[in-house]
Amino acid sequence: GRPVGLLLCMLLLLLGQSLLSFSAHTAIATFSLACIARFVVGLGGKNVSVARTTYSSDWFKEKELSFALAISIGVSRLGVITAFALGPNLERIGKSLAFAFWFGAVFVLLSFICGLVTILIDQYVIIRSGFRKATTKPKQIQLSDLKKFGVPFWVLMINIGMWYLSFNSFVNISSSFAQSKFSYDDVTAGYLASFIHILAAVFCPTIGIIIDFIGKRPLMVFIAGGFNALGFLYFAFLPEKVDSNIAAIFGYLTIGLGYSFFAAAAWPMISYVVERQTVGTATGIGFCFQAIGILVGSLIVGAISVASKNEKGEVQYFYVCIFLAVCAMIAMLSSVYIFIYDCAHGKVLWSSDPCTSQKLLA
Prior knowledge:
The chain is 80% helix and 0% strand. By secondary structure, the chain is mostly helical. 39% of the residues are buried.
């Protein structure tokens, strides 16, 4: 069940962060231990996201689901911004990398406590509402249930994979891109790279409220891909060296808005295209497609960057941006299919009240 899953994932996350903190101590510092620690953190961290999304989908499916998920995504972006800002300062204050890692471990411990509170609240509500009886066995999810996931679900998975491929591939190079394209130093480039996360923290909840009010989720996903494609094409056709803060901010603003629209619209759609008892499995598959997209995108962008260096050894980002724009356009095309399919099957995703639409179709 999800309480055990959340608890296990939080324990893995705490164990991984603790191992990483130990690996930074001079006396026992080993690269192998750090790699193992990051692997354990990855196992726990991504699956915590799955559990978080599953809880939100269950608690808020009847209303305000987009807003609830957008809030959680916005808060996670604030966490990223805080980590970027505090990390170097903590290392300087503690005069060691281990101090910064242990500081992070304290926050993981606080997150673990919040996870326990979440489980207690959820179980309390279940008992009070009589939603589940002790004599009723929960349905066991099997691999054969994957056959029940319809075409719109798998097209949505392709959309998620392609969109995160384009977005995260750019985020990974955003600092070096800003230094090359706009001649910023590493500190200023870092601030510009974090601008995307700041935009997401601000705009995700706002867009989530709008989506809960008007619906039109496939359109919002299409707009998200459009923002990304526009931003990448804009960067592609800029001169190799640009001395303009406005030009830099405009491009990063466009991509940040794209992320805000996508995060608020795409993830809530999962709970409306699968059965209730399979939301956790479906969300996990979504994060799997996201991770595959990020991995493949990073490898391809790395290869294009190496092949695009000039005689001075500087990366020319034209072909990288064109590739990312094409991936965003593929995501846009998949959202068009989702829209057409949804229109032919009751407009559940288009509706401002998808649960009622589902009940009417049933």
